[in-house]
From TrEMBL:
The keyword Disulfide bond does not apply. The gene is sucC. This is Succinate--CoA ligase [ADP-forming] subunit beta. One of its GO terms (biological process) is succinyl-CoA metabolic process. One of its GO terms (molecular function) is ATP binding. Succinyl-CoA synthetase functions in the citric acid cycle (TCA), coupling the hydrolysis of succinyl-CoA to the synthesis of either ATP or GTP and thus represents the only step of substrate-level phosphorylation in the TCA. The beta subunit provides nucleotide specificity of the enzyme and binds the substrate succinate, while the binding sites for coenzyme A and phosphate are found in the alpha subunit. InterPro entries: ATP-grasp, ATP-grasp_succ-CoA_synth-type, ATP_grasp_subdomain_1, Succ-CoA_synthase_bsu_CS, SUCC_ACL_C, Succ_CoA_ligase-like_bsu, Succinyl-CoA_synth-like. ATP binds at residues 46, 53-55, 109, 112, 117.
Length: 399
């Protein structure tokens, strides 16, 4: 689960990280009061969306030469004018996809006097099975370019979970970021704080880009992007309260209510599958035959009829799904339960697109019988290969 920048900064502030003062607002009416709470003489008006690249982003509704999603303001009037222009509009960045994201919240923040922009992040490094810091002196809005063309400028430093951030590791990070004086002292304090926050809150990613050295020589967290491990959210009510559903795909929210693993994708074949491995294989084979999956939906092991019904309804509600492939290997999951769930969903919402069903495993004969006797226009398939070819052909034909 992702949260907004201002929320991430509040979490880090609790742990003692140096962040600027700021006020989040939801409407332009609040802009003036928010700016007045800050000292000035520089304010920054920052779009709050669950995506980075905001500074270089463009608003769909504004002229091409209009300013981006992070704007400096030298007066309170400018803060208000920018807030009016930004709120309610759609920001397109390198990370949002072409549709962009509507800006419903702004963060009005104290402007910092920047001497240097650094990059610092924490992530779970699967290659060594540890949490690792990633650090570079080349922070700011072009870090992706640095990673691609000069990867030697980026240090990856794994942290042993039994040792934590030792003095030696903290010093290595200071060296990599070329910190001295006050900035070095700030860094030595900051790195263990970030590591503790990451571990205690079950973060999956904590990215500070930029971490800045200010003209007064001190460090400040200027941007913060945090995402959490969804499997650990049950033990963090405070973090769950930060969820912004307007940032999430509606179908994914619906799926999460039924504990279904659903991810919306860009293609046109909806897939209902049981087990993540079978879901991956199904997506691969659809691609092999020249089409793209519209989603990844795993109904899981011993799903009930209700869960299967909900899953099928989510797939049929996707206007991009021009065909549906049900591919089930019944182990714990029973094929007859799948068949009943599909029928119940079709009774409620109808079926406008071709449906290919491949069932195998426990109670397969009963499952096939239920579908055959239903009068539904189902294309039966015998194996994975057959099923994929049939749905790809059916969708092409319908086009
Ligand atoms: P994004 O990464 O989404 O573009 P950032 O928060 O990193 O958004 O902001 C982009 C740039 O705007 C930063 O690299 C920095 O140069 C500038 N900036 C952001 N916040 C402030 C601030 N509080 N004071 C001064 N400059 C800022
Ligand atoms: Mg940034």
């Amino acid at each position: 689960m992702n949260i907004h920048e201002y929320q991430a900064k509040a979490v880090l502030k609790e742990y003692g990280a140096p962040v600027a003062e700021g006020v989040a607002i939801f409407s332009a009416d609040e802009a003036e009061a928010a700016a007045k709470q800050l000292p000035g003489p520089l304010w920054v008006v920052k779009s709050q969306i669950h995506a980075g690249g905001r500074g270089k982003g463009k608003f769909k509704e504004l002229e091409a030469d209009a300013k981006g999603g992070v704007r400096l303001a030298k007066t309170i009037e400018e803060v208000v004018a920018n807030a009016k222009e930004m709120l309610g509009n759609t920001l397109v960045t390198a990370q949002t996809g072409a549709d962009g994201k509507v800006v419903n919240r702004l963060y009005i923040e104290d402007g910092a006097d920047i001497a240097r922009e650094l990059y610092l992040s924490l992530l779970v490094d699967r290659s060594c099975g540890q949490v690792a810091f990633v650090a570079s002196t080349e922070g700011g809005m072009d870090i992706e370019e640095v990673a691609a063309s000069t990867p030697e400028k980026i240090l990856t430093l794994p942290i042993d979970p039994l040792e934590g951030v030792t003095d030696e590791k903290a010093a290595q990070l200071c060296d990599a970021l070329e910190l001295d004086g006050d900035a070095r002292a700030d860094g030595l304090k900051l790195f263990p704080i970030l590591y503790t926050a990451f571990v205690e809150k079950d973060m999956a990613l904590l990215e500070i880009n930029p971490l800045i050295v200010m003209k007064d020589g001190h460090l400040r967290v200027l941007d913060a992007k945090v995402s959490f491990d969804g499997n650990a959210l049950f033990r963090h009510d405070d973090i769950m309260a930060l969820r912004d559903k307007s940032e999430e795909d509606e179908k994914e929210i619906e799926a999460s209510k039924y504990d279904l693993a659903y991810v919306a994708l860009d293609g046109n074949i909806g897939c209902m599958v049981n087990g993540a491995g079978l879901a991956m294989a199904t997506m691969d084979i659809i691609k092999l035959y020249g089409a793209e999956p519209a989603n990844f939906l795993d109904v899981g092991g011993g799903a009930s009829k209700e869960k299967v019904t909900a899953a099928f309804k989510i797939i049929t509600s996707d206007p991009n799904a021009k065909g549906i492939l049900v591919n089930i290997f019944g182990g714990i999951m029973r094929c007859d339960v799948i068949a009943e769930g599909v029928l119940a969903a079709v009774k409620e919402v109808g079926l406008q697109v071709p449906l290919v069903v491949r069932l195998e495993g426990t109670n397969v004969e009963l499952g096939k019988k239920i579908i055959n006797e239903s009068g539904l226009n189902v294309i039966p398939a015998d194996d994975l290969d057959d099923a994929a070819q049939k749905i790809v052909a059916a969708v092409k034909e319908a086009e």
